[in-house]
C-alpha cells in the first residue's frame, strides 16, 4: 500500500476527488500533523474509509529517543518492514527570553534525515556501511521523518526548520525519491521548507551531482571530500575508484550555487591519515576557483575501528592554516555528542545554517 506522504499536492488531487479535499488532507498532514485519518474531521465519512483502505499513514514508529544535554534529540524509527533508521532534531540555537519574559529569539532547529537502510558506498570509517545495503527509503519515509519530529516536539507548522540529508545512507544513490522529497518538503501547502534551507551531503557520485545541478532545485550542496589524493580517498571511500576527486571537482564547478551561498566541503579528519599541513595545502589548490567553505569533522571512533580521532591541536592547526590562506573553515560543533547510539555519524552534525 502506498503512503499518503508519497504524494505531491498535485498528485493527491488526481487521487482524491473533488480536488479541494486533497488540500484539506494536506492541511491535516502537514499543518496539524494528524497521525490517523480519523482525525480529519472535516472530511466525509466515506472519504475517510476510502483513505484508510487505500493509503498508509502510520508508516513508522518511534522506538527509541535520546535527548542530549545540548537539547538535540536523536530518534530511532522502526519502518513497516521492521528495519530501523535514525533522524536527529538538532537544536542549533536555544530560545532567548529577555528579563521581561519576552521571547527575543525563538529556537533554531535543523533536522537530519536518513536516505537508506544501510549504504552501498562502503566507507571504511562509517558505521552505517558495516551492515551493507538493505534498501532505499521511500518518498513517504523521507517526509514522515520530519512530520514525526515536528509532531513529537510540538514545533508549530509555521516554524521554519532546516534539513540536512546527512543521516544514514547516500541520498544521491536514492536519487529519484530524494528529489521528490525535496520538492514535497518545499510545497507551501505542506511543510513549506524552502529549498535554500535543504542541504544534501554526498560522498561524491559525480554523475548524480551533475544531474542534480541540471535540475536546478535550489538546494545546498555538501561534499564529503575527506582526502585530497585519490589513493587515500579510495581507501576511505571505495567508490572513489569510479568517481575520482577531479570528477567531483568538475561536477561541483558546474553546480548552480545561490549567489549568497557556498558549497560545503566536509573533511573528516583521521589521525595520521589526512591531517598534515601538506594535505591542507593540497586542499587549498583543489578548491581554488570554487565558492567553498570547509567543515572539519573529528573522526568519531567506535569499537573495532583502527582509525583514531585527531587531537584538538591538530584540528586547530589544520583549520588555522586554511583560514590563513583565505579559505572559510569551521570545525564541526559536536551536537548531541553525549547521545549514546549505534550510529557514529549521526552524533556530530553541523549545519550549514541558513540563519
Ligand atoms: N552518505 C552521505 C551522507 C550521510 S554520511 C555522505 O557520506 O556524505 C554524513 C556524514 O557523516 C559524512 O560527512 C560522513 O563522512 C560522516 N561520518 C561517517 N562516519 C563518521 C564517523 N565515524 N565519524 C565522524 N563522521 C562520520
Ligand atoms: Fe554511506 Fe555516507 Fe556512510 Fe559513506 S559515509 S558509507 S556514503 S552513509
* CATH architectural label of the largest domain: Alpha-Beta Barrel
Distance between the termini: 39 Å
Mean pLDDT: 92
Biggest sheet architecture: 10 strands, mixed
The CATH superfamily title of the largest domain: Aldolase class I
- SSE series: EHHHEEEEEEEEHEHEHEHEHHEHEHE
Which band does the percent of strand residues land in?
15-25%
Helix and strand arrangement:
Layout: E1 2-3, H1 9-15, H2 20-30, H3 45-54, E2 55-56, E3 60-67, E4 73-79, E5 84-93, E6 96-97, E7 103-105, E8 108-112, E9 116-118, H4 127-130, E10 133-136, H5 139-152, E11 161-165, H6 175-186, E12 198-202, H7 206-215, E13 220-224, H8 230-236, H9 245-253, E14 263-269, H10 277-287, E15 292-298, H11 312-324, E16 328-331
Parallel strand pairs: 1-2, 8-11, 11-12, 12-13, 13-14, 14-15, 15-16
Antiparallel strand pairs: 3-4, 4-5, 5-8, 6-7, 9-10
Helix pairs in contact: 1-2, 5-6, 7-9, 10-11
This protein binds S-adenosyl-L-homocysteine and iron/sulfur cluster.
The site of iron/sulfur cluster has 11 residues, from α4.
In short:
The chain has 355 residues and is of the alpha/beta class. It has helices spanning 9-15, 20-30, 45-54, 127-130, 139-152, 175-186, 206-215, 230-236, 245-253, 277-287, 312-324, and strands at 2-3, 55-56, 60-67, 73-79, 84-93, 96-97, 103-105, 108-112, 116-118, 133-136, 161-165, 198-202, 220-224, 263-269, 292-298, 328-331. A ten-stranded mixed beta sheet has the order 3-4-5-8-11-12-13-14-15-16, with helices on one face.
Amino acid at each position: 500500500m502506498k503512503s499518503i506522504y508519497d504524494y505531491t499536492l498535485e498528485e493527491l488531487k488526481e487521487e482524491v476527488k473533488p480536488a479541494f479535499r486533497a488540500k484539506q488532507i494536506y492541511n491535516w498532514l502537514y499543518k496539524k500533523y494528524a497521525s490517523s485519518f480519523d482525525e480529519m474531521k472535516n472530511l466525509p465519512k466515506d472519504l475517510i474509509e476510502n483513505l484508510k483502505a487505500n493509503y498508509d499513514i502510520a508508516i513508522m514508529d518511534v522506538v527509541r529517543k535520546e535527548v542530549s544535554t545540548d537539547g538535540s534529540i536523536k530518534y530511532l524509527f522502526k519502518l513497516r518492514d521492521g528495519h530501523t533508521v535514525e533522524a536527529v532534531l538538532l537544536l542549533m540555537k536555544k530560545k532567548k527570553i529577555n528579563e521581561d519574559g519576552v521571547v527575543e529569539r525563538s529556537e533554531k532547529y535543523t533536522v537530519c534525515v536518513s536516505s537508506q537502510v544501510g549504504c552501498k558506498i562502503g566507507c571504511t570509517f562509517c558505521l552505517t556501511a558495516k551492515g551493507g545495503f538493505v534498501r532505499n527509503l521511500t518518498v513517504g519515509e523521507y517526509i514522515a521523518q520530519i512530520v514525526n519530529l515536528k509532531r513529537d516536539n510540538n514545533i508549530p507548522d509555521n516554524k521554519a526548520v532546516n534539513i540536512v540529508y546527512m543521516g544514514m545512507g547516500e541520498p544521491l544513490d536514492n536519487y529519484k525519491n530524494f528529489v521528490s522529497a525535496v520538492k514535497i518538503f518545499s510545497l507551501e501547502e505542506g511543510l513549506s521548507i524552502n529549498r535554500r534551507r535543504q542541504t544534501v551531503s554526498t560522498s561524491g557520485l559525480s554523475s548524480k551531482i551533475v544531474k542534480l545541478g541540471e535540475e536546478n532545485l535550489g538546494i545546498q550542496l555538501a561534499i564529503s571530500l575527506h582526502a585530497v589524493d585519490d589513493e587515500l580517498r579510495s581507501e576511505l571511500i571505495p567508490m572513489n575508484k569510479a568517481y575520482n576527486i577531479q570528477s567531483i571537482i568538475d561536477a561541483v564547478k558546474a553546480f548552480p550555487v545561490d549567489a549568497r551561498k557556498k558549497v560545503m566541503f566536509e573533511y573528516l579528519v583521521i589521525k595520521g591519515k589526512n591531517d598534515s599541513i601538506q594535505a591542507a595545502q593540497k586542499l587549498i589548490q583543489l578548491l581554488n576557483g570554487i565558492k567553498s567553505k570547509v567543515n572539519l569533522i573529528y573522526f568519531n571512533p567506535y569499537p573495532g575501528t583502527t582509525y583514531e580521532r585527531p587531537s584538538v591541536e591538530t584540528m586547530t592547526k589544520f583549520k588555522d592554516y586554511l583560514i590563513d590562506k583565505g579559505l572559510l573553515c569551521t570545525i564541526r560543533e559536536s551536537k548531541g555528542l553525549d547521545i549514546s547510539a549505534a550510529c557514529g555519524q549521526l552524533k556530530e552534525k553541523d549545519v550549514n545554517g541558513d540563519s
